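Q: My labmate handed me this sequence with no annotations at all. I'd like to see what the chain might look like in three dimensions before we decide whether it's worth expressing. Could you predict it?
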Amino acid sequence: MKLSIRALATTVAILWGGAVLLVGLANLIWPSYGGAFLEVVASIYPGYHASGTIGSVIVGTLYAIIDGAVGGLIFAWLYNFVACCCKPPVATT
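A: Here is what I predict for the chain of 93 residues:
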């Protein structure tokens, strides 16, 4: 069974981007919410700061969407590569 590279990349991009967006928006409403998570995200994505502004939430979400798409693409490609190469030999009668 092969994974759809485009589908997995899109799914992971939506999930990771949505997670960063929701935590960022919650941090705008409740400033103490998700502070540690956003600091970790800020340490990974250059140019993103967990400053609690709508601009930083948008930048972090865009980074997360791109990061999720690339991660999902690599995972699906690697899975398909390993699944193809590790098939058991077909028995002939």
